[in-house]
Amino acid sequence: MRVVITGGAGFIGSNLADRLLGEGMEVVAIDDLSNGDQRNLQGLDAELVVGSILDPALLDATVAGADCIVHFAARGSVPKSVADPVATHERNNTGTLMVLEAARRAGNLHTVVASSSSVYGAVPDLPKHEDLATRPMSPYGVSKLATEWYALAYQHSYGLPSLVFRFFNVYGPRQPAGHAYAAVIPAWIAAALAGDPVVVYGDGMQSRDFTYVDSVTAVVSEAITRRLVDPIPVNLAFGGGSTLLDLAAKLEEIVGSPIALQHAEPRKGDIRHSSADPSRLLRLFPQVAPIGLDEGLARTVAWWRRR
Ligand SMILES: NC(=O)c1ccc[n+]([C@@H]2O[C@H](COP(=O)([O-])OP(=O)(O)OC[C@H]3O[C@@H](n4cnc5c(N)ncnc54)[C@H](O)[C@@H]3O)[C@@H](O)[C@H]2O)c1
Predict the structure, then answer these.
(1) Are 177 and 189 in contact (CB under 8 A)?
(2) Per-residue pLDDT at 199 exceeds 90
(3) Could you tell me if the CB of 62 is within 6 A of ligand 1?
(4) Alpha-carbon dihedral of residues 90, 161, 116, 291, nearest 10 degrees?
(5) What percent of the chain has pLDDT over 90?
(6) Which residue range is the domain that position 202 belongs to?
(7) Which protein residue has the closest C-alpha to ligand 1 atom 28?
(8) Contact 175, 136 (CB under 8 A)
(9) In the prediction, which pLDDT does 267 show?
(10) How far, in Å, from the CA of 12 to the mean position of ligand 1?
(11) Of the residues 18, 19, 34, which should be mutated to test ligand 1's pocket, given the most ligand atoms within 8 Å of the CB?
């Protein structure tokens, strides 16, 4: 199988490329390197097309001969979207339409799309299941809601075989730290290994359903192989959130030295609690065996130490 991964030089995309190549598939990554890094694909036998999903001719050339598109390219991050919502809209919404149009022109390629738990936003129910309403609290959340429903509307309107996953907080090797918008786990591991304090926005009692990247790529890979299609989005997380204070305690144990917490103002658009109801995922993927937080953190810290 030949699989095109948009955003393939990014964190999750490059981990997926690694897995698919290991399973004998051909991988073509298209990435404008706005947030990705060619080094994520170093040593992998993936083809990298450097350019934007906003370029239809480049997309046509990239998807020619492909069996499947995995659409991960996006402007991630809630705070980035609060700072510049138009830039988020352009990449995430116009960009998604461009990818779906390319999939359609190529003869309705199977298309797997990344959405986000941020679509649940202000809905208070926990855990989040797919039948709940969506009330995004940030431009990023709105952009992912449109992303997922464009992909699903293409099923109804054009017969495009699509599958949407709602990722919760994914973490693991290749996720960058060292910039203002870094996700909490890499930011904290980098700080802890340098002996610096970690920044906690708010009281640290907010919780997240942290999902190790290999658990995500295992499911996506199976979805590609089985050419799975579904008319509604599927949560891709396994339930049971951890608070940020729990996370700090676990990291302290793995790193083996005390971690100082530095509290800062809560961030706009941040959700208080987020945890997935995985029932639908487990019905569709009964064989999947997720990697737990202790093991995933240990593997991620080991990767940071090797770097
Ligand atoms: N990491 C998470 O916890 C998480 C959670 C929910 C949803 N998601 C979604 O999963 C997907 C992958 O996220 P990630 O964490 O790997 O982020 P990432 O930023 O590492 O990957 C996205 C990639 O898309 C590329 N990109 C952005 N705009 C582009 C454009 N116009 N053309 C081509 N490439 C472009 C970036 O350079 C980057 O490499 C995204 O759609 C994101 O919204 C991620």
Answers:
(1) yes
(2) yes
(3) no
(4) -140
(5) 94
(6) 184-207+240-275+292-301
(7) 74
(8) no
(9) 84
(10) 7
(11) 34
Ligand 1 atom showing the smallest separation from residue 175 Cα? 20
Same domain, 126 and 261: no
For the CA of 53, the nearest atom of ligand 1: 32
Please name the amino acid found at residue 116.
S
Q: Decide: residue 32, CB within 10 A, 0-12 exposed, 13-18 middle, 19+ buried.
A: buried
* Mean predicted lDDT score pLDDT of the chain: 96
Query: 76 and 161, same structural domain?
Result: yes
The stretch 38-46 carries a mean pLDDT of 98
State how many domains the chain has: 2
Which CATH number do you get for residue 95? 3.40.50.720
Atom of ligand 1 nearest to the CA of 115: 7
pLDDT at 269 over 70: no
Looking at the structure, do residues 62 and 88 belong to the same domain, yes or no? yes
Q: Which atom of ligand 1 is nearest to the CA of 176?
A: 20
Q: Is the CB of 157 under 6 A from ligand 1?
A: no
Assess whether 63 and 203 both reside in one domain: no
| 193 and 136 belong to one structural domain | no
Average pLDDT over residues 211-232: 98
107 & 255 share domain: no
Say if strands 207-208 and 162-167 run parallel, antiparallel, or are unpaired. unpaired
pTM of the predicted model, to two decimals? Answer: 0.97
For atom 21 of ligand 1, the residue with the nearest CA is 10
Predicted confidence (pLDDT) at residue 48 exceeds the cutoff of 70: yes
pLDDT given at position 139: 96
Q: Which two structure tokens, joined as six digits, stand for 21? A: 């190549």
